[in-house]
Amino acid sequence: MSWLPHSPANPNPVRIADFSPVFRFPTGMIEIVRGEHDTGPPPRRDHPVLTLLRHDLPASLVVFLVAVPLSLGIALAAGAPLLAGLISAVVGGLVASLLGGSPLQVSGPSAALTVVLADTISTYGWAVTCAITVGAGLLQILFGLTRVARAALAISPAIVHGLLAGIGVTIVLGQLHVVLGGRAQGSAVANLLALPGQIVGHHDQAVLIGVLTVAILVAWPKMPAAVRKVPGPLAAITVATGLSVVTGMTLPRIDLPGSLPSLSLVPQLPGGGWAGAGVAMVTIALIASLESLLSAVSVDKLRGGKRTDLDRELIGQGAANVAAGALGGLPVTGVIVRSMTNYEAGARTRASAILHCCWILAFCLLLTGVLRYIPLAALAGLLVYVGAKLVNLPALKEVLRHGDIAVYAVTVAGAVAVNLLTGVAAGVLLALVFMLRRMVYSGVHVEAGDGRARVVIEGALTFLSVPRLTKVLAEVPARADVTLELLVDYLDHAAFDCLRDWQQAYTRAGGTVTVDEIGHPWFQRGSSGEPTVRRSVAARVVPRWLAPWSQWQAEHTVVPGQRTGSPLGRGASEFQRRTAPLLRDTLSGLAHGQQPHTLFLTCGDARIVPNLITTSGPGDLFTVRNIGNLVPTASDGSDSSVGAAIEYAVGVLKVPEIVVCGHSSCGAMKALLGQAPEGMAQLGSWLRHGEPSLRRRAAEAPLLLDGRRPAAEADQLALHNVVQQLDHLRRYPVVAAALARGELTLTGMYFDVGAAQVSLLDAAGRDFVPAGAATH
């Protein structure tokens, strides 16, 4: 979901729901269903017939022109009857479009399955391969009914891209032989070994046609936009075929029957080798399911709106494979190339995918003779290009960036050298090994000197880490003051016992060990007898940079290299060890100047931490603190420190915003109400700058905090005090000039300490509303 942002023209945020029409076919009628929406009038939409004519019909023609040559080429590469590619595109594509969960997904024969199909056809024959396709479809239906579709998305992207790359390399190695006028060998390795001889061997007219096809496909994306309206595959096949016909080339061409045979049940059960057939069935089902799901998710990311029902998509793809296999077609998947083409051509509903099947059928019935002119070398060139595109270089860069290149390489090598299932299995196994290594990683090192030592342990500390942990702990000098720093994500029983036993033994030997646990208190819980099986949601630990000293500094903590045992000294030491390395780059950029966004005027109260309550960092706030967040008037010359800060911030630093922040339970406000400590002349002299706030409180109606008046009078005064100090700011000439130029904004803020709630003064100046809901 996305939201229209708040603006003067759009006072109410409105959620943009999925208004794309969705076709349903419960009774053979077409019903248009509009997605839910929260507010506002219904969106303008075309009549269903207009949507069909304006968007889906033109898109279906584009997809049809892409699908025909691809379907024929995939059938050629798999060694299947060429007509099987068209049967799959029509029958399988139609069933998947009607029953699937993704309205813009286009299904048909896929290059990802050519390797498996080629091996299956050569082993069992075409009729048994059709039966295996039916079985794979039934498996997909089972996957969908058991709702395991989303589990397929848990496969590492490195394995998915490696699998596709392996398929692409295998296709390229095989079809290059056809392009060069030869025949593909029985395996990818054999193709690779025979390729040098094929390259230097005798070449005939097929080479010219194949190379021309590849060249057109490579150059097509760089053509003018008007030219690129014709799909690249169609243009390449048309030009190559036309050249071969005009010049009278004698080349192997597509061989189709004189007329389309009547559709009948083709599958035949294997006479033996059931185990191998079962493996092929599972392999086809897994690859087809994975590609279909990834294609559906990719289209979802583009179109937005309601996400695809992935389980329904699997059921639809399974039914499509049952139908395609039963009628003598290839296995089908949701194909990313056709689906993206469908979306980019402007399709709005599943009618586009349905119509593209109708155009293919009409083409087969009326123009079968045209197909017989297409040279096989042209289809091979198309497949070389498609296979090369499966080796996705941007995806490879992403895999490399995430450190999974070994998983990718193993998957590719297994898929090319052995088979696809072996490649996937090898990739999954290596990914699991890496995951285990990353999960159980623990960094342990010792820093020692001057009778002190610091043992730092990071990562997950499990029984697998105990041998290394024991070795490192043995290196700690005897009878030293040791700080054991634990930055662990998990601490299991074995590792806890190892640490506790070492701590006790080291202490008995005359040393001291202070456990400094950062993050979740695994060791502390184990020491107190609580289980350390899992991280407790209730036991939330405030990070040290957000927590007071008292919450993380032990009374007798000794930090190596620290001069004093004071909380400030320990805090400075903690900053130097942990925070400084993280901020060094940021601070180095601020070393020679500042350009803060906000002048932040607030009270000196220790409970107010400006950077914390504004989520800001170094260089963001130019902060001025005093008792009561008071701003003496510009005409009052008794104290010029605040005025100097204002002039410098606005006149020199050119800050675009000034914030005055008051807070609850303010001691200065209590003092103004008559609760001032006695004998403090300087405090009394300073607080006279707050007397205008007292007069404002007496003269004006109460201010509200989130729609309610604060119960404490001091808190009510604190609200009036913020408004009064904003008035004082406006009287400074430098502020008034910046406001007149529209270069400065004044903001009132109030922090309720007990509720940890920041509120902002609204535009009317009568109510402080919680941050996020403010309209100041």
TrEMBL record:
Residues annotated as binding Zn(2+): C603, D605, H663, C666
Lipid bilayer topology: Multi-pass membrane protein
Transmembrane segments: 57-76, 83-104, 124-146, 158-180, 200-220, 232-254, 274-297, 358-385, 405-434
EC numbers: 4.2.1.1
Any GO molecular function: zinc ion binding
Co-factor(s): Zn(2+)
An annotated GO BP: transmembrane transport
Keywords annotated in UniProt: Lyase, Membrane, Metal-binding, Transmembrane, Transmembrane helix, Zinc
Cofactor note: Binds 1 zinc ion per subunit.
GO cellular component, as recorded: membrane
Main location: membrane
Pfam families in alphabetical order: Pro_CA (PF00484), Sulfate_transp (PF00916)
Domain (SLC26A/SulP transporter) ranges: 53-406
Keyword Transmembrane helix: yes
Catalysis performed (reactions): hydrogencarbonate + H(+) = CO2 + H2O
Localization: Membrane
Known function: Catalyzes the reversible hydration of carbon dioxide to form bicarbonate.
Protein family: Belongs to the beta-class carbonic anhydrase family.
Name of this protein: carbonic anhydrase
Organism, as annotated: Amycolatopsis saalfeldensis
Upper classification of the organism: Bacteria, Bacillati, Actinomycetota, Actinomycetes, Pseudonocardiales
